[in-house]
Design brief:
- The complex is a heterodimer of chains A (437) and B (251).
- Chain A is an alpha/beta fold and 437 residues long.
- Chain A has helices at 9-20, 31-44, 60-63, 125-130, 133-137, 145-153, 382-389, 395-411, 417-436; strands at 88-93, 96-97, 111-115, 158-162, 170-175, 182-191, 196-202, 208-217, 222-228, 236-245, 250-258, 262-271, 277-287, 294-303, 309-319, 323-332, 340-349, 355-364, 370-378.
- Chain A has one domain (9-380).
- Chain A has 9 helices and 19 strands.
- In chain A, α2 runs antiparallel to α6, α7 crosses α8 and α8 packs antiparallel against α9 (417-436).
- Chain B has 10 helices and 12 strands.
- In chain B, β9, α7 and β10 (199-204) form a beta-alpha-beta unit.
- Chain B starts with a strand and ends with a helix.
- The A-B interface holds A 381-384, 386-395, 397-398, 401-402, 404-409, 411-412 and B 50-54, 73-75, 77-79, 83-84, 86, 89-90, 92-95, 100, 103-105, 107-108, 111, 143, 160, 164.
Chain lengths: 437, 251
């Protein structure tokens, strides 16, 4: 449960060492929020593997002052994911805004976009109210000091306010070109009443990447999020999504992770308005033969309104010593009647060296709710494999088809069929490369 | 076509003998039926011939058109012309029926050194064959066997058979779980594929399927061996008298 981080000298020293190595931005509209976040970091201290929610994932490489180096991706370059779509691109290279790779004009009908680093020039009331606010709320009942550190230290990011139906998706593209980059980005997204936005994110971003995204949905707002975290093998990433849902709003997020030595994706969902819907899904593929792979999904859903639906669908395919972690919780507060909460986490282990660690939790204080959770770990189904092979499909191709079959439920959480198809094509590519090797 | 000699098989996991010397010879263009009580080894025979894991052949051989089968992988046997219609077709969520069919057809063509079918050509052929089996476009789009009724699953097996054009078809209790109309539809599908270069082995509990798919030869299997072989009249005898008389006769 909600164990506050223990006060101890070692933790304090590690926290101060990390802060001392950082150049914390000062001034501007985020000053107060950053100072408060810094206080939260110091109060909680940076996480260690002794903390309950870091038991399965050692945070050392995420907290150490100098992050480990990460080799640049040396494999075959694929066409950019979502690159053929009509979309507005905001690019960051190793955490720095990359104007050349971004759309010439960051203007889009139905949407206001400003970069965090230049936002002081304009007076954005909504962003001042939002920056760090959902992150601060999300520190209860479980502290998330790395998210607070991000709020205190973020150098850039995007501030997006959707006031209508966005004419096309906004695509955040993260390039990684330095072996030692340590990037910290913080995005704030406000979806006004009845507005709608699709946000795409792709790319590894940096040798070490910290990202917080706060998504505030007003009544009836709709937010679709599809991200792919890039194929770099030795990158490390800690990401947080904090979202607050107003009445009748809809939040849908899907993440594809293939490769990455260490990834922790946290998603903190706070359902405040009646009749809201939140779906979060992920497909992760890791092959220890091409570099260590440790992937952690940590999700916390709070139901604090009537008649809401939440859905968590997480699937991991692991081989050659890859490790998958899932920590998922549904908290239904008193009065959150007619809640429909669902959670499934599943791992497909392609050999006996890989590992899946799952910690599903339900905590329910309302009496008229429907909540279920399930977690399974299994191998490729022998009968299905034989069925495909008996039709002439080779063992390797049959295995690839069954991997796609296993991931299908997570991919189906992406609403747009075109985006679904692009994700599937990526998966097929990942599987095909492993067949040749 | 298919020749099985003195085949002895045990379950790998349990060290339990299942087949105890099966001999079977099916000529080109012939339809053979195997009947027998539960647990006699009928399904095991179909699995061993098509290459399923979990069985150990302790003695004997099986060959298809002179090619030794037992050393081949299941996909190699399929490419050589063997097809097994499953008693319980497997559901594969997330993989479209059409994708599955095309992957299978092209894998076999590739294995035989033939050119792969283009998407357009494939679509044309599959639509035509699906139509005769009353498989609609919707069923082709859905994930393999997911949400299919019992009859739809069996029709889908026959569609795969029609698309793959195998030389030796084994039908494992294809009639189980089918109503009369569905059985007729499946039988029509099978009959449409009968030709001089293609043979069938029909495994069934009941004679009724054999009213629709007329066999040339009927075998009775019990306790891991074929205990009697005859013409279509043997199936009628079983239908009328059960297996007891036949078993007693042999014992």
């Amino acid at each position: 449960m909600a164990a506050p981080a223990r006060k101890d000298a070692a933790r304090e020293a590690a926290t101060e060492a990390r802060l001392a190595a950082m150049d914390l931005p000062k001034g501007g509209f985020t000053t107060m929020a950053r100072a408060a976040a810094l206080a939260r970091v110091r109060a909680a201290g940076l996480p260690s593997k002794r903390d309950e929610y870091w038991r399965y994932t050692n945070p050392a490489e995420l907290t150490v002052a100098d992050g480990p180096e990460a080799a640049l991706f040396a494999g075959q370059v694929e066409p950019q994911l979502f690159g053929a779509r009509d979309r507005l691109v905001v690019a960051f290279t190793d955490g720095r805004f990359d104007a050349e790779r971004s759309s010439a004009d960051l203007a889009l009908e139905g949407v206001e976009i400003t970069r965090l680093a230049v936002a002081d020039a304009v007076d954005l009331h909504w962003a001042r109210d939002l920056y760090g606010a959902l992150e601060a709320d999300g520190q209860q009942p479980v502290v998330r000091p790395l998210a607070a550190l991000n709020t205190a230290a973020a150098t850039d990011g995007v501030l997006i306010r959707a006031t209508g139906r966005a004419a096309k998706p906004v695509h955040l593209v993260y390039y990684h070109e330095s072996t030692t980059s340590d990037a910290i980005l913080h995005h704030c997204i406000r979806i006004e009443s009845g507005a709608e936005l699709t946000l795409l994110e792709t790319g590894p971003a940096a040798a070490r990447f910290s990202k917080v995204m706060e998504v505030d949905l007003a009544a009836g707002g709709r937010f679709h999020h599809v991200r792919a975290q890039g194929r770099d093998h030795s990158r490390r990433a800690i990401t947080h999504i904090f979202t607050r849902l107003g009445a009748g709003s809809q939040f849908k997020s899907f993440t594809l992770t293939a490769n990455g030595v260490l990834t922790r994706n946290e998603c903190v969902i706070d359902i405040r308005g009646d009749g809201a819907v939140a779906h979060v899904a992920g497909a992760a593929l890791g092959d220890g033969a091409t570099g260590d792979f440790h992937h952690d999904d940590t999700v916390f859903v709070t139901h604090d309104a009537v008649g809401c639906e939440s859905r968590q669908v997480f699937k991991k395919v692991l081989k050659n010593g890859a490790v998958g972690v899932f920590q998922g919780k549904i908290l239904v507060k008193q009065g959150a009647q007619k809640t429909d909460g669902y959670q499934i986490s599943q791992a497909l282990l392609l050999d006996e060296d890989s590992q899946f660690l799952a910690k599903p939790e339900l905590e329910i204080y309302a009496d008229d709710v429907k909540c279920s959770h399930g977690s399974t770990t299994g191998a490729i189904d022998d009968t299905a494999l034989f069925y495909l092979r008996s039709r002439g499909v080779s063992r390797e191709d049959a295995t690839a088809l069954l991997v796609l079959s296993f991931l299908a439920d997570a991919i189906a959480e992406i609403e747009d069929e075109g985006l679904q198809a692009e994700i599937v094509t990526r998966l097929e590519g990942w599987l095909a490369r492993r067949r040749k090797g | 076509m298919l020749e099985i000699n003195n085949l002895h098989v045990k379950l790998e996991a349990e060290d339990k003998p299942i087949l105890k010397g099966v001999n079977l010879k099916i000529g080109a263009g012939e339809v053979h039926a195997i009947m027998g009580p539960n647990g006699s080894g009928k399904s095991t025979l179909s699995y061993v011939v098509s290459g399923r894991d979990g069985y150990e052949v302790t003695e004997g051989s099986a060959s298809l058109l002179g090619q030794e089968l037992l050393d081949m992988e299941p996909e190699e046997r399929a490419a050589a012309g063997l097809f097994l219609a499953f008693q319980y077709p497997v559901e594969i969520p997330g993989v479209g029926n059409m994708t599955f069919l095309r992957t299978a057809v092209n894998a076999q063509r590739k294995a035989r050194g033939e050119e792969e079918l283009s998407a357009g050509d494939f679509l044309k052929v599959v639509r035509e064959k699906a139509k005769t089996l009353k498989i609609d476009a919707e069923m082709l789009k859905r994930p393999v066997n997911v949400g299919f009724s019992g009859g739809e699953k069996k029709r889908n097996e026959i569609l795969q058979m029609a698309m793959l054009e195998p030389k030796m078809c084994i039908l494992d209790e294809t009639d189980s779980g089918l109503d009369v109309d569905a059985m007729k539809l499946v039988a029509d599908g099978v009959n449409a594929l009968r030709d001089a270069g293609r043979s069938f082995l029909v495994i069934t509990h009941y004679q009724r399927l054999l009213d629709h798919i007329k066999p040339d030869v009927v075998h009775i299997m019990a306790a891991g061996r074929i205990i009697k072989t005859g013409g279509p009249e043997l199936a009628l005898e079983v239908e009328n008298n059960g297996y007891a008389d036949l078993l007693a006769e042999v014992n």
